[in-house]
Amino acid sequence: MIDKTFLEEVELSGHILDSLLLPKVLDVIMARGGYYHIKSMKIGEKSTDPSVARLELWAESQEKLDDLLDAIHDHGAIPVHHGDCVTAVADVEGAFPEGFYCSTNFKTEVRVGGHWIEVQGQEMDVGIVIDPKKNTARCVPMGDVKLGELVVIGRNGVRVFPEEAQRKGELFEFMSSAVSSEKPKGATVREIAAAIKRTKAAGEKILAVLGPAVVHTGGGEWIVWLIKNGYLDVLFAGNALATHDLEQNVYGTSLGVSLDRGLPAEEGHEHHLRTINSIRRLGGIAKAVESGKISGGIMYQCIHSKVPYILAGSIRDDGPLPDVITDVVAAQKAMRALVPGVGFCLMVATTLHSVAVGNLLPAWVKVACVDINPATVTKLMDRGTVQTIGIVSDVEPFLRALVGELKGS
Amino acid sequence: MIDKTFLEEVELSGHILDSLLLPKVLDVIMARGGYYHIKSMKIGEKSTDPSVARLELWAESQEKLDDLLDAIHDHGAIPVHHGDCVTAVADVEGAFPEGFYCSTNFKTEVRVGGHWIEVQGQEMDVGIVIDPKKNTARCVPMGDVKLGELVVIGRNGVRVFPEEAQRKGELFEFMSSAVSSEKPKGATVREIAAAIKRTKAAGEKILAVLGPAVVHTGGGEWIVWLIKNGYLDVLFAGNALATHDLEQNVYGTSLGVSLDRGLPAEEGHEHHLRTINSIRRLGGIAKAVESGKISGGIMYQCIHSKVPYILAGSIRDDGPLPDVITDVVAAQKAMRALVPGVGFCLMVATTLHSVAVGNLLPAWVKVACVDINPATVTKLMDRGTVQTIGIVSDVEPFLRALVGELKGS
Amino acid sequence: MIDKTFLEEVELSGHILDSLLLPKVLDVIMARGGYYHIKSMKIGEKSTDPSVARLELWAESQEKLDDLLDAIHDHGAIPVHHGDCVTAVADVEGAFPEGFYCSTNFKTEVRVGGHWIEVQGQEMDVGIVIDPKKNTARCVPMGDVKLGELVVIGRNGVRVFPEEAQRKGELFEFMSSAVSSEKPKGATVREIAAAIKRTKAAGEKILAVLGPAVVHTGGGEWIVWLIKNGYLDVLFAGNALATHDLEQNVYGTSLGVSLDRGLPAEEGHEHHLRTINSIRRLGGIAKAVESGKISGGIMYQCIHSKVPYILAGSIRDDGPLPDVITDVVAAQKAMRALVPGVGFCLMVATTLHSVAVGNLLPAWVKVACVDINPATVTKLMDRGTVQTIGIVSDVEPFLRALVGELKGS
Amino acid sequence: MIDKTFLEEVELSGHILDSLLLPKVLDVIMARGGYYHIKSMKIGEKSTDPSVARLELWAESQEKLDDLLDAIHDHGAIPVHHGDCVTAVADVEGAFPEGFYCSTNFKTEVRVGGHWIEVQGQEMDVGIVIDPKKNTARCVPMGDVKLGELVVIGRNGVRVFPEEAQRKGELFEFMSSAVSSEKPKGATVREIAAAIKRTKAAGEKILAVLGPAVVHTGGGEWIVWLIKNGYLDVLFAGNALATHDLEQNVYGTSLGVSLDRGLPAEEGHEHHLRTINSIRRLGGIAKAVESGKISGGIMYQCIHSKVPYILAGSIRDDGPLPDVITDVVAAQKAMRALVPGVGFCLMVATTLHSVAVGNLLPAWVKVACVDINPATVTKLMDRGTVQTIGIVSDVEPFLRALVGELKGS
What is the pTM of this model? Predict the structure, then answer.
């Protein structure tokens, strides 16, 4: 006889079959040793219709049942009978109360006063703070919590909408095994170019996250073209990208290697240090541009075209440039402020910054991650940035082809 | 007829043949279109004798000649007739005067008042500041330069001793193509274990630089053993290593994956956030240990065994833990302060921190870099950390075997 | 109005929800621009019950509809109204008639005379030949087709059972993102050891496919242990594995590198050539063992323990050894003959042989593929060997741990 | 007191300093525990003059001394007093006598009747057979030895000239750390293009060794251009390259992926099987071209432009195509026959064939190896194909840029 002492009824709705949500939920339940009974299922007859499934779910103990409910919650399964979300008052500055609800990067709603309200500033791995006066909810990073704020606790009265992220087809038409170097490159480039144009047409911002290999491989000029032609609205990078870009403008080398001749210049390894030093003496990149010391390149073009950039510090930085935000928490905050309005993100040749930015983006911002090393893309996707298309390719030729595609059409 | 208008006579001494210094210098001269004539060469007859070579070196212009002299200077070739080193007064806080001498990680001497004095705190890619009163010289990072300090300009009166770094055989007996996964692992592990013991016996410190895969793969317990048994004196890491180590202690998982069962725990991705939050609530790792919240693992053992650690912030950090130094320049400074006395450095599974620390170490500190990805080691060696032995292997099994070797002998 | 001129009704049954079959079929239909209507769906209420779905499927042309039917056929969707399978007479020796049915590695049945019969020797990417007298069907590689044989044409009267392969949980309990180096290794090793023991207990054969890095890294002794203890019943490898194993026995080196000291032996690169030459002079491995020239190692143990081995030739072979089958088609045939009865396959450090053997195995033979390079596993899984668990790890330490696990329990 | 009982005098000549030969020899002697005394050294004063060094070399036993002499022999150091080379009669068909001299890929001479004669068909890892009547010597693979032939034994009377291979600068101007993805790609492509043109201008053949990713990534058209324009004289590949090239011509897909759309075609995985089957039915590629079935692509162009190709079989081949040489020893022989006259070899996206062909080429044939995976190039160079320039890049964009460069100039 079946013992249903510890039971809950949950519901899933949307494209739960073809977006794999229902199968995933059933899989999770079975894998964890739970039991289910599908009470009802209204399947969308046509491919465009949504479906609704209602499940009875039980386990051997309340603890196990709670585990199951937590596990399936991120896949969009919510209890049929729910009340409002529960909150606790923040009792320590810069930390959540224990038991805080931990956010995903999917669209999320919380139930306050019997009404579902959408959470603002959606971002994964942070908490949700409720403003009961304004009747609003927003994502808040751990370190930003203020004493006395109301933090959502547990999953009750919280629902997530993972579905859209599963349907990449809307922006990217190809998707299967994303990470392979043995794919036709022409088609991939066309697809990215089309996504960039769609984003621009939709009035959304295009964000680029760039590593220094963009400059080392000779791809700087293509980024300049993207900026000049309005295909790049925000730039996130580190000290290295900016330094090698400036070095190339001053010395014609990148990390001491001549882009024209491919040969290491003598004293080459010093060029980037001398470049940083000169910029420090002048007081920053903008002033170096103003003074005429810097007359071209990515950073020059950013300043010229008023494209905002965030240079985030890293423990291995030389110098760094005066523009670098050396405090990483401050740098995160600066990046976070520029995320709203971004519709497309192009990440090239940087694992560190790609993962960092991937953590900040809501799931509906499409991401194309280009790296010659398959591990970078895999890492990004493993960490939950599921909306990513990975392209294993060489940086400069990829950017050259992308610009060719944007020009050509 | 040969035009020797732009001529300089330089000298190399030491094991210039078998450490490849002379051939490298000749190669550089030819590759740059310079000319040379070997005026005299006293070759060490026995394998242990040093050699001395004196070269006439000329080029088509003074500029080209200067380039050549700069290029061969880092390989230990110095003009026969030299005066004192030249200095300039620092006129901008946190920046060198233009033309500053850019350091290597080799032992370096500067000539002051007719005498050669050794530079203190040797480190690559920084400048040299002279204290004329104390008659001392020391390496100074760009950002630490104070107004009015005397900074060495150009290469005159500066000599480097690259030789030792070329002779890895003293610490590591094998060396050929360092980066390969297809090497016998038993022999490699024995070699590293022997180097660690030699370092300890010499009274020098052993530094470990660790990435989070140490914990993910289940290698944490071996690091604990190393600390307990006095084989690890300083730890450099980031927020991730510490967090996953603490997470494992609290939840038995690492990034939500159970080390015992290999299965992702439900809510697993939340464990590291909850761990960070709890530690923030308690005020730091030491207090969490004190309170009994943390009862084992790497960080626990560091505190218990009074092993100093630096946790350097990164742009992708969650939280971070209160112990993390979020300003990267401050973190570099903190690491720099712990480098003196280090004789051996074990870098495991972290590209970012390995490169950062590699930049801080003088060339005579031996480094073993273990990573499953060959690119990490290659990157480290490309950036000038030549004293590195790269081991392409899996983290946990490598550490397990290393501990076995240290125990066994 | 919906035009259902080009319509077919198809059925799926089994664990079509939690094994993702139904969602995949719906996804394929939509991605190809087809339309569907779910006529009925009987969902297994409990997690162990199978489900049945019946779909109406239509497209804009018969050609498009046929494309859709082909596409979903490999996922187990078959027309509700089917007749017998269609055959054509082979009119060219060593080639199929045009339009031949191309097999998967899933269990397959063909309808002959109104009855479904199971195809023998299931293997992907070959054809199916019917013997109408014996009422049997078997997989036949292209080159083995004889004039006059009856070859199945098209997908009518053919049905595949992809479900089981989707449910790896039966043999392997973990499964998620298989290819990562950042997984706890202890748990993985335990899982593989358990699978090996289950296979042995079930009376099935264990097949090992080994590359030369097994010997280079010092892992040969662990393979010897596996053979001695009955954990390895068949060995597939190439000239290199056998040569370096024999070289190690004769010279104590592998590709000239001493396993004890890790140092390249002088003349080391000659050792493998001299080894091959000696074995050629003696007439083969068995005779070399008999003569006492070879007294240990993997090949010795195979002969001693009567474990059959196939050494398949490759274009880069030196020698090769007399035991190597230099004709690759003959080698495939020899391997194929040893596949029946295999229940578990351990592939270590060889892309070429792993892919080759992966192509020969039916989907119900579980595969563990161990390689330090993630690309090898990815390649294997991309080619359809879905039953593979990939372990990114270092060869010798992995094998050492596996043996430790098998011993310990 | 020094005991010089076991002593030999050896000589090195050529660019022994800047090609690093002398330092290497000294390094080998010391590493092996030998002793040396440099008796005389005539150093080329100008950079273009050769040098001569004479060394006394001794060890603690005759066996150790012989080891040392063997070790330094491959670096061009030969005893001052030498007699003729020693031979033994081949007493087993297809095997050398024990103690056979094992060749390098450097230019080699043997002393016969007091005269040095050059060895023909230079190739590494084979033996040398003397024809005393014709006074000639030639490289002979193990399996090709005939009963009664005179095979060179030991290193006496054999000298090698490793120098040239060390000086890549003649063909490639850049050389340092060859294997990095972070290099400017424009300069690299220009360099390869220039090398191809120099080879053509010198009347030497250009050999291409291609893997299937050339077609998968969409690079087939660029290879066609190279053939059409006389930049490709010989093609070595496998069943996969040819099949996917033919598949693309027949179906517009490569391994079932549409090159135009990047999407996997339905039944895509069957396309290559159907293609092979069709070609088998027609009797081979040439007949398929004749019949009009194949109207474009790499193989079509080879037949049209009378570019000879060798398709070597591999254990993982489907089919294979009738043109494939399924016996690997026969395939090696066929490739060997086409090597004479080759001056440049372009290897793209194939580890297996690159290593195989690398083994066949003498050291003076320059090689450019292009692969997105750094491990392939590393493997090639580790195995002794030192004349290789490795380019870590993406296949299609690299070929596109190469063609652009060849067109443009």
Answer: 0.87
